[in-house]
């Protein structure tokens, strides 16, 4: 599975030198990955909000962005061939 292009999500940012450039919630030092890791471990959104001082809106924004990104159509075969043709 391809990595998500978090640069298109307005709820997050990546700043060189801030948490090693990891994608974090905007104006925080909290990595976006913390949400997915804790959901996978069985935590609820309410628990994540309490544990990491995030708002429901922040958490929902990244979950919805990820869901929309996964629903996006895969790159066309033409695009893939063009990328491979330009590989050095």
Number of strand elements: 2
Main-sheet strand order equals 1-2
Mean pLDDT across the residues is 85
Count of DSSP helices? 4
Report on this model:
The protein has 88 residues and is mainly alpha-helical. It has one domain: Arc Repressor Mutant, subunit A (Orthogonal Bundle). The protein has helices at 33-40, 45-52, 56-71, 77-85, and strands at 12-13, 24-25. A two-stranded antiparallel sheet has the order 1-2. It is globular and about 35 Å long. The two termini are 23 Å apart. The model has no long low-confidence stretch (mean pLDDT 85).
Based on the model shown, name its key terms.
two-stranded antiparallel sheet, single chain, 2 strands, Arc Repressor Mutant, subunit A, mainly alpha, 88 residues
Short characterization:
The protein is mostly helical and about 90 residues long. The protein is built from four helices and two strands; from the N terminus they run E-E-H-H-H-H.
Q: How do the strands and helices of this protein lay out in sequence?
A:
Elements: E1 12-13, E2 24-25, H1 33-40, H2 45-52, H3 56-71, H4 77-85
Antiparallel strand pairs: 1-2
